[in-house]
Amino acid sequence: MAYPGELKVFCGTASRALTAGICAHLRTPAGEAIVDRFNDGEIRVQIGENIRGDDVFIINSTAPPVNDHLMELLMLIDAARRASADRVTAVLPYFGYARQDRKDRPRVPITAKLVANLLVAAGANRILTVDLHCDQIQGFFDIPVDHLSGDVLFANHVRERDINHNAVVVSPDMGSVKRAREVAKRLDIRLVIVDKRRPKENMSEVMNVIGDAEGMHALIFDDMVDTAGTLVKAAQAIKEHGALDVTACATHPVLSGGAARLIQESVLDELLVSDSIPLNEKAKVCPKTRVLSLAPLIGEAIRRIHDEESVSSLFQ
Fold first, then answer.
1. The model scores a pTM over 0.90
2. Which of the following is catalytic: 178, 196, 282, 284?
3. How far apart are CA 117 and CA 316, in angstroms?
4. pLDDT digits (tens, 9 = 90+) for 209-241
5. Is 196 a catalytic residue?
């Protein structure tokens, strides 16, 4: 049974192209909304149609510039609540500040929790996001959270290449082992782990490879690629251990600083990313980078939420 209110989809400036794809999947037009700036730089938001009693989904990645896009999302949520929407779901294809999820040093904030509080205070009734940096961030919310996995996207692409019989999934560091293990299970192939260690201070890191990658197609899986340092070093280690080729799969292409150049000059054969974050200008011209769209996955999740169907069954 569908949610009683009409389904309406709006977006901020960070996710316009992705939202167009989502709306095409849903076969519904994007809602009318103004998101621009006043002369002094303050953000101006206005929803341009009646949404009273509707089931509203507001899509905006907190992509760079993170603070501007987060503010757009909060203001759109607030506008929807004040316009008497019956339910407001905040859709964050990329959840910024997710790496600040615990107090690991004295006198530092837990910014992921702060962002969660802001979204709820603005009026969000539900959260839909993709590949949180840490799963425990779901517990920062006292409202329902639907957490999608970009690995579904990449796993389907790997199946289409038909290399499962001769491939291994690689975890680029110990922190990504759980994710990589789940992907290996999904694809029914073996797991290899790159263990990065520094024997002594002021000594270079040693990359120990746990498992056999010789003569195999190596598939590195991670939730994001930022500076690309860890990814490039892992690819080098795997190639030195006899891998035929190395493909990296990362949901969120932050690609800050000189990451695009580093990837282009590395032994990586291909970098697969999603459109959770629009590629920056340097990444757009990197021939090794290929973008797969999250629009069908997010669109289907939105449809299921609206129709009161299971979202978790998307991953079975």
1. yes
2. 196
3. 31
4. 999 999 999 999 999 999 999 899 999 999 999
5. yes
